[in-house]
Amino acid sequence: MPPAESPEPDATPGPPKPPPRIPDGQPNPFYAPHRGTIAQLREEFVVAVRGDRAVLIEEQEWQQLPQLLRFLVLTAAGMGDPDDALRRRWREFTDAERLAIRATLRTWLRVLRALGALTL
């Protein structure tokens, strides 16, 4: 019979070394290549947990507007290419674009509230 082989000792005896500490405010380099996947998974988990409640009210209102009205709002708000903007979801607009759209809608609502005889 061959003699029993002894297990090889670990290359680093003793307790395992802790991972290097990342200073506060510094991004963890491990997450950099996975940032897109993590964001996508986070969105999927939110939808799975909350269902339709996670949908923003603004997004719902924007999608419920008829396409012609959205086109008019985008044109009045000064969008350079309203055809391209029609295909975008509410959160895909920049903050400046959303502010311009909101300002246009507020102006229209203020003007349209004053109309009474034309609606009879």
List the helices and strands and how they pair.
Blueprint: H1 35-50, H2 57-64, H3 67-76, H4 82-86, H5 95-113
Strand elements, count? 0
Q: Approximately how much helix is present in the residues?
A: 40-55%
Could you say how many structural domains there are in total?
2
Strand-residue fraction? Answer: under 5%
Instruction: Give the structural class.
Output: mainly alpha
Straight-line distance between termini: 106 Å
Task: Spell the H/E element sequence.
Answer: HHHHH
* Low-confidence residue ranges: none
Give me the Rg, rounded. 28 Å
Overall geometry comes to elongated
The helix count comes to 5
- Largest beta-sheet details: none
* Global mean pLDDT: 80
Architecture overview:
The chain is built from five helices and no strands. The protein has 120 residues and is mainly α. The mean pLDDT is 80. The protein is elongated. The protein folds into two domains: 32-63, no CATH class; 65-120, no CATH class.
Write a short abstract of this structure.
By secondary structure, this protein is mainly α.
Summarize this structure as a short list of keywords or feature phrases:
single chain; 120 residues; mainly alpha; 48% helix; 0% strand
